[in-house]
Amino acid sequence: MGADGSHNYSLHMWSRSTGMAFYRKGDVENKRFIELPINAFLVAVLVLIPTPWHWRARNIPTLSIIAWHFVSNIICGVNAIIWAGNVELVAPVWCDIVTRIQTGATVALPVCCLCLCVHLERIASVRQTGMKPSDRRRREIVDGALCWGIPAIYMALHYVVQGHRFDSIEDLGCRPALYVSLASIFIISVPPLLVVVLTFIFGGLALYHFFQRRLTFARHLQTASSALAPSRYFRLMAMAIVQMLWGGFGISLNMWSCTNGLLPYTSWDDVHHNFWEIWDFPHHYFNETAWAWTFVSWWSIPASSVLFFVFFAFGDDARKEYGAFFASISRVIGCATWRKSYDIENLKRGTCVSRTSTPAFKRQFDRDSDYSTPVSPTTSNSTTFSIPASSTTTLHRPDSIYSSTKLSFKTYQLEPFPFESSSPASSDFTHVTFTSFDQSKV
């Protein structure tokens, strides 16, 4: 019953050995758990938030953790909707697919954390003082093969100890089936536990290297990995260790549930006899304790995802991303409002500056103006221009913007041009005087 979507071993063991309902009927009330899909989908969105900055860093283990968490929560949410209050065989093909994914997630998350800790240990040690593009590419390929290849092998090996097609639990949906035996201990339980132990070893080595170089650790990180700041390094390390503590707790519970006894793995045919059976488990098959453990098993997946989100949602990288996101939204909303209600007063006050669009009166002026007409200054400091009569104002920009510049002012007298165009806008011009300025650094 781990954070990785592992199975309720005792459920399969007792049912397989007795062949009958093994709990007292009616111990669990027939409740509706409408909060299950809501929380699952909400958490699925939360784990996607740190994706942009990990994508730019090409952090394959962390991106894989995000992907496995996202898919696992989507599966939990969809299952909670389809099997709300029933154990009917609604989507057998869906169950065949998602139970494989749930099985792979059992080992995928520990492997991702192991890859992350190995990378952090190499950075903290003297073995990695810089990475060439080819080295980085090689590391990404190895990380991808481990984070996705090992779970694929684990899914295939699960078939060896898969006693029937899958289980269907009321309100929780389909779950992987398991023939609890000595073979299942070595194939299903031991590999994730070994990965957890290796993760703690490499995490401890990384902390050891840190204490050795704690005075120059920030400079060492810049030499070893230019994209990794000390704050991000420790967040990654803490996240990996906490995820392993949570996953190790779940794996230990799974192994403890097997203390009631193991089924004999006599032969392949015996284990896979009536393989295409689907076992249904309504509420009344559970007593309060058994249902509590099954329920905790379901909630362990969203809880693990929330732990991941907390480590990356409030750091410096996250705050920068949030600021950039809201700034882009503000620019889009602000400029859309400006284009909708544009007038010369908005331009004068500088309420919105567009870097791509051209003011309406300037576009009209460009269309109607005869640029072949010479411009002759009226005085030594005056030049003749022409703009629409509605724009009779003095245009300026806030002085605060130019606090570091020296301004030299010139006065321009605006007079009408002899337009040949018949456009109505070209005949309605007037004299306007405004002040312009040249900028030069102090």
UniProtKB/TrEMBL annotation:
GO-annotated biological processes: pheromone-dependent signal transduction involved in conjugation with cellular fusion
The topology of this chain with respect to the membrane is: Multi-pass membrane protein
Q: Keyword annotations for this protein?
A: G-protein coupled receptor, Membrane, Pheromone response, Receptor, Transducer, Transmembrane, Transmembrane helix
Q: Which organism is it from?
A: Coprinopsis marcescibilis (Agaric fungus)
The lineage's top-level taxon is Eukaryota
Location(s) in or outside the cell: Membrane
| InterPro entries membership | GPCR_Pheromne_A_rcpt, GPCR_STE3
Q: What is the protein name for this chain?
A: STE3-domain-containing protein
Q: Which Pfam families match?
A: STE3
Biased composition regions of type Low complexity, renumbered to the chain = 372-388
Spell out the residue ranges making up region: Disordered: 365-393
